[in-house]
Amino acid sequence: MGQAWGFGRYGGPEVQEFFDRPDPDPRGGEVLIRVDVAGVNPLDHMLRSGLVSGLDGGRPFPRVLGMEAAGIVLALGEDVDGLEVGDAVFGLALTGGGTYAETTVLSAANTARIPEGLSATVAATLPVAGTTAVDVLDQLDLPAGAMVLVNGVGGGVGLAVARLAVGRAVRVIGTGSNAKREHAEALGVRFIDYAAGDVAAAARELVPGGFDGIVDLVGGTSLRTVAPLARDPRNVIAVGDSSVPDLGGRFVERRLDRENLARSARLALDGILAPMITSVHPLSDAPAALATVENGHSSGKVVIKVA
Predict the structure, then answer these.
(1) Per residue in 30-76, pLDDT tens?
(2) In the chain, N or C: fewer CB atoms in 10 Å?
(3) CA distance to 39, 225, 278, per residue, from 293 (Å)
(4) Is 100 left (phi over 0), alpha (psi -120 to 50) or beta?
């Protein structure tokens, strides 16, 4: 039996609970791992709230929170290739196993080995934020010297996008709350405090000719405010708001396969995609870790150190 943090029904933070569960048996295409570190993401509380369906793998309540983890392979399910017991790996629990737990199952096709020299803590931040940053910038395919606006630059994904863009010699302007200014500016981002006034006017003053690309991590009214700032509406890429095609933009095309995970790990190892980890919690403090992300107070990446 091992401890896990999850939820007994859909709802808000009040449905969360600690519970013990036996090590899950890996199904076909899954690997059982000992979790060393779990990443914390907005998707986690969205799943708990019942806003996103289809990622529970048909598993019963109580369900374990969390989508990304790094750890050591303990057992293999059927039809798993390229991974072995004892491998240090990182990946996604896309079949409902959860990751805020001492052990869990990851989807083998969405799991990769951790390269030598990369810590489990860094690796655990890559399956969501790291690969999203790679996918967004590959989709935009901006040349060196181009100007991109990252709307919502202060979180884990936003800072990853900014760091990777700067590594590609793309100039970055980012919007966010003033509390997140320091981390963004440390990467070379020109920062706009969206609570200080008219964001669109401030952005136009900085870039009168419009942006070569816009990456939106906020959605809703905020997306509709910044989208007209793009020189070409097709170069507005949204990560969370699927209504972006109504504005002429595109939703991010996600690649969660082993190859893209491995690519993100190499970029992290080279320092190009090094995540800004701003908060590390033990499993016993998982409620606070998730609350920080759910309340929008996190700057950078939050992780739970389990082992």
Answers:
(1) 999 999 999 999 999 999 999 887 777 888 999 999 999 999 999 99
(2) N
(3) 11, 24, 11
(4) beta
